[in-house]
Amino acid sequence: MTIDQGDVMTRQHVLTLMACMLSTAHVDGVTPQELALMKTFYEQSGVADLPPFADDEGAYGDHSALAAQSASDVAFAEQLVLMSFMTAYADGHLTDGERTHVMAIAAKAGLSNERTNELLLHVKDTLIGSLAMLPDAESVAMVAKGL
Q1: 137: burial class by Cβ within 10 Å (0-12, 13-18, 19+)?
Q2: Is 58 a residue whose pLDDT tops 60?
Q3: CA dihedral 86, 88, 93, 97 (to 10 degrees)
Q4: What's the confidence (pLDDT) of residue 2?
Q5: How many domains does the chain have?
Q6: Rounded distance, CA 116 to CA 32, Å?
Q7: Is residue 66, in this structure, part of any structural domain at all?
Q8: Is 74 contained in some domain?
Q9: Span 122-136, mean pLDDT?
Q10: Is 80 domain-assigned?
Q11: 50 vs 24: CA distance, rounded Å
């Protein structure tokens, strides 16, 4: 199931996404931007009966085991990887450790390296697209190079 604005997430989807997003954020220390992204996602998920928001790694379960359980649903596995990359980029850059970590999540979720790299490019394109409205094209180009 691809999770978009028209789809309804289950409690397990949210918990799995949070486990993987949190584990990604903890790779190099949770930043305020990563925390804000995760908290907003969690609170706006629309799922009832969720435990209180927590930013402790492992608070929502073992990210590795949950990613492996997602392998039977390719669309959700891809969403899981997209959200993990978005979390990594929330502070403005993707570290080598974060990239390696998300690649491991993707492998557990049954995605090929090729597909995972395509998803990473999609995240980069989305981030660059969100900057395209800025009037200073030179600054946008500099940011894009850093992605």
Answers
A1: exposed
A2: yes
A3: -140
A4: 39
A5: 1
A6: 26
A7: yes
A8: yes
A9: 66
A10: yes
A11: 21
Decide if 27 is inside a domain.
Answer: yes
Residue 98 one-letter amino acid = E
Rounded to whole angstroms, the Cα distance separating 83 from 125 reads 14
Residue 85 sits in a domain whose CATH number is 1.10.3680.10
Counting every residue written for the chain, the total comes to 147
Q: Which domain holds residue 86?
A: 11-146
Q: Are 81 and 109 in contact (CB under 8 A)?
A: yes
Amino acid making up residue 48:
A
Angle at 21 between CA 20 and CA 23, to 5 degrees: 65
Give CA–CA dist 16/140, Å, rounded.
33
Model pLDDT, residue 106: 97
Q: Which amino acid is at 133?
A: M
- Is the CB of residue 73 less than 8 Å from the CB of residue 1? yes
Tokens representing residue 134 in the block: 């800025």
pLDDT band at 67 (very low <50, low <70, confident <90, very high): very high
pLDDT the model gives residue 8: 72
- Residue where the block lists tokens 């669309």: 75
